[in-house]
Amino acid sequence: MDKSLRDRASRVVPGGMYGHMRASGLPDGYPQFFARGEGCHIWDVDGRKYLDFMCSWGPIVLGHHHPVVDAAARRQMEQGDVLNGPSERMVELAERVVGLVTHADWALFSKNGTDATTTCVTLARGATGKRKVLLAKGAYHGAVPWCSPHPYGVMSEDRAHILYFDYNDVASLEAAVTQAGGDLAAIVVSAFKHDYGQHQELPDLAFAQRARALCDANDAALILDDVRAGFRLTLHGSWDQIGVQPDLSAWSKAIANGYALSAVMGNNRFRDAAAALFATGSFWCGAVAMAASLATLDVLEAENGPEHMRAMGQRLRDGIAEQARRYNLGVRQSGPVQMPTILFEDDADYARGNRFTQETLKRGVYMHPKHNMFLSVAHTAADIDHALSVTDDAFKIVAGL
Ligand code: PMP
């Protein structure tokens, strides 16, 4: 079935599939098409079942097809979704996230993470009347000309006012601020360094504090791109954990457990600017996703989701570390345990990583060889232990035993 869908898609879908979900970006054997998901399991179109460690690249935070979230969405669907204006759900959701997220005094909603990061940048420029925006080299903020990692079709003019620094490197950040002169609108930071194919890095406190201070000194906006990490590590904003508050933040992925929704949140300094900005989209006020989000946040809070994911992620990390030691394999695990990246040392072409994940896939555990993975609230200790029995076999093969 996967094969015949690929053949059909190759005739009517660009490249057979486009963007980050292309199976051609994965080792041989990975399915392109999926049929369904339930809890922490997914089924491909050929009926093969996998224990899922990608969670749809982030959105699934409570587990696939979550009964409470889906019931809330269905209830709303019976009332109406895309209407001539927002529903009551929008106000409820804005109140909810303003109550949860430490730096937020207001929220506006859109659909994709890219909508939210782009709105943050536009808002910072509008509010400050300045142009330069600083990004960390290699950081992902979306797939539009100002930030796409693939410059196909992008003109240098699109990035005329974008400057770069190295994440966690204070000196390079200061140099970029100097380069911006008096024209600094914003510094954009990810919750932590989660660049594709690389070891992840948590934010260094001195770096985060310096970014905050430089924005204050230059009347610029500190923008936190919390699209990937938000509501998975904590419900209060990822940099709340280190005591550094952004002015603006971008959210999506986990916010509605798979329903299409993103958000921009901001403090009072940017309230008037946000009201002045023409931010809009045909589907941005859709009430179903907002109802799903309210239910998602309720369950995450009631079940202390971030803490559960931390405990399960730690169990996985400890187990993998023990196995790598036992098989004498250089394996480095990085990032928060809820969002692990597992890379082999001295594996520049990812040959061992690819082999490892191909072997776990064959045994029904869907992992990624080079991107960070995602835990969900649906992963239980028994699921992690099952995954570890599979990774044990996969390590054995990679070690050539
Ligand atoms: N920022 C970050 C940190 C992301 O991880 C992503 C999505 N991978 C985006 C922005 C863009 O989100 P979307 O794909 O929903 O546009």
From TrEMBL:
A Pfam family the protein falls into: Aminotran_3
CC cofactor: pyridoxal 5'-phosphate
PANTHER family on file: GLUTAMATE-1-SEMIALDEHYDE 2,1-AMINOMUTASE (PTHR43713), GLUTAMATE-1-SEMIALDEHYDE 2,1-AMINOMUTASE 1, CHLOROPLASTIC-RELATED (PTHR43713:SF3)
Keyword terms: Aminotransferase, Pyridoxal phosphate, Transferase
Protein name: Aminotransferase class III-fold pyridoxal phosphate-dependent enzyme
GO terms assigned for molecular function: pyridoxal phosphate binding; transaminase activity
Family statement drawn from the similarity comment of this UniProt entry: Belongs to the class-III pyridoxal-phosphate-dependent aminotransferase family.
The keyword Membrane belongs to this UniProt entry's keyword annotation: no
Gene3D superfamilies from the UniProt entry: Aspartate Aminotransferase, domain 1, Type I PLP-dependent aspartate aminotransferase-like (Major domain)
InterPro entries linked: Aminotrans_3 (IPR005814), PyrdxlP-dep_Trfase (IPR015424), PyrdxlP-dep_Trfase_major (IPR015421), PyrdxlP-dep_Trfase_small (IPR015422)
